[in-house]
## 1
Amino acid sequence: MTAESKTLPLSPSRALLLAGWLFASVFFLYAFVLRVSPSVMVDDLMREFAVGGAVLGNLSAVYFYVYASIQIPIGVAIDRLGARRLASGAAAVCTVGVLVFAGADTLWMAYVGRFLIGLGCACSFVAALSVAAIWFPGRFALLGGLAQMLGVLGGVLGQGPFGYAVEQIGWRETNWWVAMGGVALTICLFLTVRDRPSGGVEPSRPLLEGLKRALSNGQTWLAATFGVGMTGSMLAFGGLWGVPFFMEARGLDKPEAAALASVMFFGWGAGAPLSGWLSDKLGKRRPFMVMGGLLATTGMALIVLFPAMPLPLLYAVLALQGAGSSTMVLSFAVAREHNPPWANSATLGIINSFVVGSGAVLQPSIGYLLDLTWDGRMVDGARVYSLDTFGFALQVLPWCCLAGVAAACFIREVGKPAR
């Protein structure tokens, strides 16, 4: 069986292969919970460690710094070593990070915890995509979209439910319980994920050949730019600053603001598998990317400019913005199709590095802009930013979406993956 087999023969192992893909995707869900959870701990963390928006943005973004910086090495390592050991080991590292973060009594220890969380979570999405590419290549965009849907479900869980738990039992205790889930996930990954079969594959190639091939391909860079444009607004707004923005703009309590911000993730969760399925079925990528990008740009602009719009309309705009942004999953499909199968994981690692790197750049950048025009107002030891300050800082997000649209216009369609 090769990496590009269209179907798998029916056998008792098929259920196990699906289970391996599912738990790798659940790992991405777990990673997304941890990715966005700082958004419902903003005031708690500001108060606990006596910091402002810029420092808090960096504390949250440590996850993204390490996650993005090691995506390419992880892609190369999965191509060479397989997803099973890397995914289960990474889940264990992530769990340790949650424990360290929950017990941190200094800002330095909190940074260490977030670093370990990002280090472990870095393997999650690439592992899920690699399992799909190896065992179910004919359904790659669909399974990638479903993995995104599970990840976005993690985004929802990491806001409303996580925020409610923080309100009820505290941020430390909530993270202790999340760590227990990480232990169970580590065991499930080790028991179900299966690596590329040893027979019938191409001869091994030099370690960095796949990386060089993908980096030298202009379509890889266009796909990465589109992914950054679509994901940046979700990670910066939905993943951190959306909750305090809605608390200020609409006078909401934290759980209510978190539930409102999570509507973007519902849109993303519905749009990712749908756009993946339609794109696979019609054999087209660019039209869905351009249309999704325009929808995301329009939605983000409306949210920032008119946050006091009627609530039903705001719900609709948030959902449509998430659905448009979800077409970022096609950036992985485009990059994979323009590069050979022996470079699969390296290619996916490159795209994911840029995608997650958008959060590493935008979260602290927006925090810096908020601090730049902060009027000095504080409540219970935490900084509070005015609506005008938020409007100034968040205006960069629609422009990021528009840059993704521009890149999508130059994507070339390809009938079959490159060899």
Note: The chain has one domain: 14-197+207-408.
## 2
Amino acid sequence: MAETFYVEENQPFPNNSLPVLYYPKRVTDLLGGSNSAKKVLALFEQNGYSNGWVNGIFPYHHFHATTHEVLACIAGEATVQLGGPDAEAYSFSKGDVLLLPAGVAHKRINANDEFQIVGAYPDGLEPDIQKGEAENYETIKQMVASVAKPDKDPVEGEDGVVLKYWT
């Protein structure tokens, strides 16, 4: 099961009326050994999320206006702020997964040295990087609103909670 976080508009960050989905410890069984990233990326790809990568979370507020994003913590832990300045911060640790709707600002507040994540996008879409500096905020909001909902949940596939909460 997943928990939901609703993130309100926080101009210049549009965020989204769709909730962030948080899957605590959902990929823990895939972690361990040198193939952890590959195993998690394979799960995401199996469920239609590709164009994957391994890295961290930027230490500045940013969002994607062109796609949703799934993030899985494969090592360590961090505190991640969702929604822009003055928004709530959440703990994100090994085995946890976040599905961020397009437009939701996110920033790494702090992390331990081991912190590492993998990320991917529905249908392998190419993300843009928005930092809340766009000249036409209304255009960005329209872009976010026009992003299609995914066909599958990144963790649970066709019967996953994304279809319940993002309809």
Note: Strands lie at 3-7, 16-23, 49-55, 69-75, 77-82, 89-93, 97-100, 106-111, 116-122.
## 3
Amino acid sequence: MFFTLPTLLTWARIVAIPLIVGVFSLPLDGPTRNIIATVLFIVFALTDWADGYLARKLNQTSSFGAFLDPVADKFLVCAALLILVEQDRVNALVALVIIGREIAISALREWMAQIGASRSVAVHMLGKVKTTVQMVAIPFLLYDGVLFGLIDTKVWGTWLIYIAAVLTIWSMVYYLQKALPEIRAKVR
């Protein structure tokens, strides 16, 4: 099922990465680049919800889609974090914690699937909350201005990305604890 509507939406998130990154190399003023990058990020982040909804509604779920969806999410988040580090809007250590966790948990899930224990590291609500906080923080930091004359997105985005980093560590510890009994059983 490479070309179903849900899978095409997932592919769109991957295709969006060079577009969002490329915005920052265009000869535009800063606020214009920020708005374009923010809108692109939000539109493509919303495809994460849409592809899952449509896959279930249209009965077009597939193992390929289940594999590609989190990969697309991680690529989008990691690319945005690298842009934000380059723009000096996110601390490199915060980005490293978030990106490092994504790599570690992806590797853990792959290993657990190979040993037949993927249920022990199934997606948990804590991971979903972490993702939601990231997906709000990132557009705030991309925008980097005052929204509606009231919301300083840099301040809110900075707080939210730090909260996301804490949730990132917390969720990583949670997944490692859930996997530890299976790991111990297989290592013996």
Note: The chain has a mean pLDDT of 88.
